[in-house]
């Protein structure tokens, strides 16, 4: 644990792994979406950490990226939820493994 | 005036075009258009005639086709020849158009008839005013077409359609010669214009090139070309040996026979010879300063004159007699042009146009009056029934026979006999023509005796008008006089037949001077020679008429079955002329037979030799394609089937991965990402 950056990155990696596991394992589409959000936030955390302990912490580049990213993530979450609602109305379920109409 | 000369043929052409669009019921419009256009053309012709009298010759040429540097020119010419011809054609045409209203009144295809008549008039007038041999040839073929259409007007009659075909094909034989001559002339002189300011084919500029070059058998090119062009004239004017179509052409309606096959179109051959006369006259290497071409023209004309006159004696169909008479008179004209120059032949052409049109229209009136009877043996005594027709017909008959002093035929025929008597190369044509003149008087007298004298021999047959109820019993077929619309043209033509002769008497040869283009002068005191020829021709006519009357008029013919007087005298001779010297049979036996043999041979060749080759190749191709199919089916298809099968298999295997579950995809993605990460980390390590 030489520098706080490594700690931040470990937290971020853990967060990403938890999110990935949730996205891969969970059956409920809403929870899959939450997993994806976690992975996104892990990436945001990486941004902040690299900015804060990078060469030029005075410039606001990292935090601006993160703010944009959060705004985009909000939009993405809205679209994702709308999709889930549409799928639910159609299939009467949100279980992801039941929705396999696209199989080859 | 020369510039607007084209209006003369265009007016009837427009009338023909408009008439062709009319419906069948618009009879009045069709006749009105045709006659109106003809009337206008006649007025224009008179104006152009007057302008020739005052101003002389005028020509108008224009470029028609341009090939590289050289161009083909067409044009029209207004000279005494074309002006007099145009006036004659429009006047006679106009009268015949008017007559046709009466003659064709009961025909359902009245509008079509007038359409064709206008077309004919347009083509004929174009032919007459043409200043280019090519334009003349175009119109020449157009009058041939119109003649074909009109001979075959009643095409539902097999004889009419056969006659139309015969006329077209026989004249075509001559036209081939004409066309070759035309091309040759173009290649030699470089122009087809007659008059072109000194450079035309008939002027010194063009002629000088032709007289010097020689071709086959020592003939000059000029002679060869003249003879080829004369071939066309032989075909169109029904000269021996191509005269066979003209009598058959009488299958057409009678006004057509009068207009086309007596007065105008058949005279086109004579007109052509008169038109290219400078070319014919060019080469003085024949006998006694006469050119070879003109000697040929003279002999052909003279032989035709006597030959056709002999046949006319033996015919019983009223129109056939007139047809053979036309052939004979055309022979006179040809001989006249050959011996005495264009003026002599053209004068006879003019007078003949009037009296032969008159005779044909009179014959039409007779046929009409006798309910479509054409056999003179079944007529007779019509003098009482049809007085106007009789009077006018008698005028025509006397004009044709050449009754002295009063009638035009005498003057024009006398002119021809006179030039024949002066012809140095031979006395033959003079003898033949004199005998022809005698026979002309004889057969016309025979016809008139048969038709107008004695008693009516058609009465034995009775006639039931269609649709009438048989309450009055049967109606006898009384001959009747024709309506005024038919008799008036007869009267006008009769007056013309008498008067036109005075334009060219030996005392005051106005017409001849007009055509030849020098001042007319009154001749004081006729030479003994002229008087002797006149006396001779008077004697010939007198003998002809007297003999005719002696044989046919002295004792009226009692019945239609009574044998002909000549038949009693010499059956073998009469049989020969009645059967027209078997010329048709001779052609059937030789030319037609040869052609049909050749066509059969060609058919056989086509069917078995060329057809066999073609089917052999076809079989070969079929066999090859069959082998191709086998290869395709059993070799190539198998390979492709195997290939596609393996594709299908692998596709089925691969498609198992795409099971539609999103998370499975994600897992694969995650696994791949992890593996990639390990790979890179390891890669960096080493």
Outline the fold blueprint.
The complex is a heterodimer of chains A (about 100) and B (about 675).
Chain A: H1 4-25, H2 29-52, H3 61-91
Chain B: H1 7-21, H2 27-55, E1 58-67, E2 70-78, H3 80-103, H4 110-129, H5 133-151, H6 158-189, H7 204-212, H8 221-236, H9 245-248, H10 254-263, H11 267-275, H12 277-280, H13 292-313, H14 318-340, H15 342-369, H16 382-385, H17 387-401, H18 408-421, H19 428-452, E3 462-463, E4 475-476, H20 484-499, H21 510-516, H22 528-553, H23 565-569, H24 571-578, H25 583-655, H26 662-685
Antiparallel strand pairs in B: 1-2, 3-4
Hey, roughly how much beta strand do the residues of chain A contain? under 5%
How many DSSP helices of chain A? 3
CA-based shape of chain B: elongated
Query: What structural class do helix, strand and pairing data of chain B support?
Result: mainly alpha
Distance from N terminus to C terminus of chain A (CA atoms, Å) equals 49 Å
Order of helices and strands of chain A: HHH
Could you estimate the helical fraction of the residues of chain B in percent? over 70%
User: How many strands, which pairing sense, and closed or not: the largest β-sheet of chain B?
Assistant: 2 strands, antiparallel
What is the CA-based Rg of chain A, rounded?
Answer: 17 Å
Secondary structural class of chain A: mainly alpha
Biggest beta-sheet profile of chain A: none
The radius of gyration computed from the alpha-carbon positions of chain B, rounded to a whole number of angstroms, is: 37 Å
Helix-strand string of chain B: HHEEHHHHHHHHHHHHHHHHHEEHHHHHHH
Find the count of extended strands of chain B (DSSP E, 2+ residues): 4
Alpha-carbon distance between the two ends of chain B: 115 Å
- Assembly type: heterodimer
What is shown here, in short?
Chain A has helices at 4-25, 29-52, 61-91.
General description of the model:
- The complex is a heterodimer of chains A (104) and B (686).
- In chain A, 74% of the residues lie in helices and 0% in strands.
- With 104 residues, chain A is mostly helical.
- Chain A starts with a helix and ends in a 13-residue tail after the last helix.
- Chain B has a two-stranded antiparallel sheet.
- Helix content of chain B is 70%, strand content 3%.
- The relative contact order of chain B is 0.07.
- Chains A and B meet through helix 1 of A and helix 26 of B.
